[in-house]
């Protein structure tokens, strides 16, 4: 018990799928402090909600979330009415009419976030990736999502950037076809938080991490319970051993 426990604990605490990686053809994203990291990590639901506002008003015009239903927003503290009204604000593709033209209807809580068919401002043939699991599958995780959406800047001298591309030192190849999505004051936060680019980026990254790992907090809680249980068991076995062997000398 004594020798396996530390190994087990290290394995449990270090296995986070949100961990950063790096690659030579983009800059390494500076590590950020996120409330949801670490074995005791927790989501700040106010930040998740603000992040949703950024997703809805900015990112969703290009990026869909086909694995996330409107109903899933319950987990960030919204009630059924709020979810209904968010859902009905989206147009969902619903077959074709007799002349073959696509039909649309208002969204319902059971629908998934739709993928925009021809997003404006996106070069032809370029598909903005789905954001359902982006914070987990994007190499570099939340740190790099944050770095990328705040990391635009003028290209260094001698570096050519073709039309329709933007210089971004955190993008693969340091160029990306997504125009800078955020500006100061791009959204209005109901809780009065000033909407700076950094704040919007932090919040939307938190939202994307939450959406990608809705059970993270529950998993952490289970992990903590397992550790406490094992510690108690270890103590009990230790006491038992002392007792059994106390007369042996
Ligand atoms: C005008 C459309 C548009 C908007 C709005 C937009 N994006 Fe993008 N995004 C794109 C396109 C197009 C790409 C693919 C670019 C490429 O591969 O060069 C992309 C790529 C990305 C990537 C990189 C994924 C990868 O695999 O390289 C991330 C991360 C990302 N977007 C996050 C966001 C976030 C967060 C928002 C909202 C704050 C947002 N985007 C808003 C069009 C958009």
From TrEMBL:
GO MF annotation: an example: electron transfer activity
Pfam families in UniProt: Cytochrom_C1 (PF02167)
Transmembrane segments: 222-240
GO cellular component: membrane
Secretion signal span: 1-20
Cofactor(s), by name: heme c
Binding site for heme c: 59, 62-63, 178
Keywords, in A-Z order: Heme, Iron, Membrane, Metal-binding, Signal, Transmembrane, Transmembrane helix
SUPFAM superfamilies in the cross-refs: Cytochrome c
Cytochrome c domain mapped to chain residues: 46-212
Cofactor note: Binds 1 heme c group covalently per subunit.
Localization (cell): Membrane
Domain of life from the UniProt record: Bacteria
Protein name, UniProt field: Cytochrome c1
The organism of origin for this protein: Acetobacter aceti
């Amino acid at each position: 018990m004594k020798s396996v426990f530390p190994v087990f604990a290290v394995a449990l605490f270090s296995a986070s799928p949100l961990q950063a990686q790096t690659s030579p053809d983009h800059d390494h994203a500076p590590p950020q402090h996120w409330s949801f990291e670490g074995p005791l990590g927790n989501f700040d639901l106010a930040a998740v909600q603000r992040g949703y506002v950024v997703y809805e008003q900015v990112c969703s015009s290009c990026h869909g979330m086909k694995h996330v239903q409107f109903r899933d927003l319950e987990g960030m503290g919204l009630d059924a009415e709020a979810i209904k009204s968010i859902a009905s604000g989206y147009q969902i593709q619903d077959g074709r009419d007799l002349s073959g033209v696509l039909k649309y209807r208002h969204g319902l809580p059971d629908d998934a976030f739709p993928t925009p068919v021809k997003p404006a401002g996106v070069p032809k043939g370029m598909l903005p990736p789905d954001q359902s699991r982006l914070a987990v599958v994007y190499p570099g995780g939340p740190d790099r999502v944050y770095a990328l959406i705040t990391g635009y800047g003028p290209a260094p001298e001698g570096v050519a950037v073709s039309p329709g591309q933007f210089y971004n030192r955190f993008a693969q190849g340091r160029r990306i076809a997504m125009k800078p999505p955020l500006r100061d004051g791009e959204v209005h936060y109901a809780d009065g938080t000033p909407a700076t680019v950094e704040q919007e980026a932090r919040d939307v990254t938190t939202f994307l991490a939450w959406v990608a790992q809705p059970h993270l907090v529950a998993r952490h809680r289970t992990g903590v319970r397992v550790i406490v249980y094992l510690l108690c068991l270890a103590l009990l076995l230790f006491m038992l051993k002392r007792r059994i062997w106390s007369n042996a000398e």
